[in-house]
Amino acid sequence: MDVPTFPTVSGPLTLPGPGGALEAAVDLPEADVPALPLVAVVCHPLPTEGGTMHNKVVTMVARALRELGATTVRFNFRGTGASDGVFDHGIGEIDDVAAVVGWVRAQRPGDRLWLAGFSFGAYVTLRAADALKPDLLISIAPPAGRWDFDRIVLPTCPWLVIQGEADEIVDPEAVYRWLEDSGAQAELVRMPDTSHFFHRKLMDLRGAVKNGVRAYLPDPAA
Questions:
Q1: Range of the domain at 24
Q2: pTM for the full model?
Q3: pLDDT tens, residue by residue, 50-61
């Protein structure tokens, strides 16, 4: 398939992936903030449990970043939505995110590249980060204890981890224990009384993301 150019307006598009076409959406920065030389790729939770790029946590993280001036790219992993292929238990999905990042970097070579992921998406981006070398990583409810975190090479870029303290799917203590035992250099934000899907806490998540990454925003004139 033809490789699309980076759009100048927000909307859906289809990207070539290693397992076939990938359904994606590009959203430009909010109109009332200066556009930054920054693209953030945001990855969704487990597709076998209903996760897609339209998940409310994913869209809120993307919204928070656009309110700071970033352009965001969301996409469906293989076998999800209109994306070709079949679910690959976090292996082929690493190749999917690498393909999307490769397209962004080819189209916007002067921009910084941030990676964000929620739950399964956090696992995939953590697995991919060593090879992709993002300028910043955001991990929302990384599923330590549910997936094999022993193979993760800890990122060396700025890294924000946000974890709900009442998460009923990802054990918060497993996340804290993994961060401590691994010696991870991450900024950890613990959100009290917050479930896995941030029910009634999405605006708090928005604030945590914006506060956590603000110091790493590029100069609009860069």
A1: 11-214
A2: 0.97
A3: 999 999 999 999
